[in-house]
Each structure stands twice: as C-alpha cells, then as structure tokens.
Amino acid sequence: MDGPMAQQTVSRCLQEVTTALNAPHILRKHIRFPQNRNERNLIKQKFYDKYGLPAVVGCIDCSHVAIVRPSEHEERYFNRKHFHLINTQVICDSDLLITNVDASYGGATHDAYIWRECEIRNHLEGLQDETVYLLGDSGYALREHMMTPVDNAVENSPEGRYNYLQKRVRCTIERTFGVLKGRWRCLLAARELHYCPETAGKIILACCVLHNMCIRAGIEGPELTEEEHQSERTRQVPFETAASSTQALQAGRRARNSLIQMLERNRR
C-alpha cells in the first residue's frame, strides 16, 4: 500500500529489527574480537602490510551518541558539554570492521574507565608468549598491550616518528566512526536518539552489526562532509590523560620503548 506509514508502525518495526540484531548469536557472529592466535595474526598482518606497524590487533576510542534527557539517573549521561549521551567504546581492525563495542556507559564516564571494565582488556592481559597491541590516544593508560603516544616527543626523533606512525594507524578508528555515522546518521552527535539509554544502546549495537555486514559485503558508505566532521569534533569531549599505576606504567614504557627501537632498526 502506497502512502505515509504511521509512526506507531515505524516504531514497532524499529523495535523488532533492533531486537533481532541484538540477539546474542547475531552479535557473536558479526561483532567478534579475535579469539585465537591465528585470528590475531591475520589482523596483525593486515595492519603491518598497510602501515608497517607490527603486532597491532586493533585501534580503540570512544565516540559520543546524543540521547534525550533520561528520566532516571540523568547524572550518568550528562557530560561536560552539557548534553546527554552514550559514551560508546569501539575497537576496529584495519578494514574498519568493528570487533568490539560497548554502548552501556553514559557521557559522565571517562574512556579509560570503560576500558578498565572491558573484558577485552582481561583477555589481552591473559595472553601468554604473544605480543599484541591496541592503539589508543593519551586518554588511555600506557600498558604492555595498549600503545599510546609519547608526550612532548621531538619531531624527527625516534619518539616523534613513532608518534607520527601511531597516529596514522590510529586514524583507522576515526575513519570507522566516520563510515558508521555517515551510514547511520541517527548516531551523529549533532542529533539525538529519542529513546531511553537502554534502547539507545541497542540501536547503536544494531547499527554496528549492519555496519560490519556492509563492510564484509563491500558496500561503500557515504562519507561525512568536512562540516559534519567538524561538528562531530566539536561535540566530542576532549580526553583527559589517564591515571596510571607505577608498575603497570613502567611495563608499558618498556614495551613502547622496545617497539620504538624495533621501528628504528627497520628504518636502516
């Protein structure tokens, strides 16, 4: 039947599709962090072939998805820029596939806290006799498995060259957010999801599942315009340098120094 569709019908369809895409077996099938060495090696090789940085299994960051003011626990979702949001953590691979997503935290929660509570962190820390890195910005604490930029690095020094490469590779997560939000524009920070936080989180997960389906099928998504990119950057809260325990920080520095030395040897 031609003609406009009633709002109730649209809402019912949205709920049914979102619920279906949030089914545990669907999420496990389409959003999956590499669970064994062979799977990790495939991702590492793709990152290395594209960028020349070894042992990288993903890039990580958080992005804000605005929501209407929740009726309960408003303080959990209100951020420093004075709007309500879901602070969504995403890990991606070099092909822009989302391998992990957490859309359960509000805008008052720091990126580093979400990562500390993430099961992937425990998974990586439990790996034996294998070098693996996630790449994050300075909002994350430097760890053996989390490579962050070197503060105040001198340009064209080994540390400066590492920072340049680390940032170049880490742009993969920014591109992932750009494609995800360009395709599913309800996630743009300048817009609002008019749902409670739990439903908004499910919509975010559903969009991530569909994003991965499109990436695997080779369906190109629309890019955000420069104006839209600028709007996203304006709405995102600048990161704060994460606090770090001394012992874990020292282990992270040793791992990062070893990586920098390896990159320098490979230049010769």
From TrEMBL:
One of its GO terms (molecular function) is nuclease activity. This is DDE Tnp4 domain-containing protein. The keyword Ligase does not apply. Its cofactor is a divalent metal cation. GO terms for cellular component: nucleus. It comes from the Eukaryota. InterPro entries: HARBI1-like, HARBI1_dom. The keyword Cell division does not apply. Belongs to the HARBI1 family. Keywords: Hydrolase, Metal-binding, Nuclease, Nucleus. It is found in: Nucleus. Residues 60-212 form the DDE Tnp4 domain. PANTHER family: NUCLEASE HARBI1-RELATED, PTHR22930. Its main location: nucleus. Transmembrane segments: none annotated. Signal peptide: none annotated.
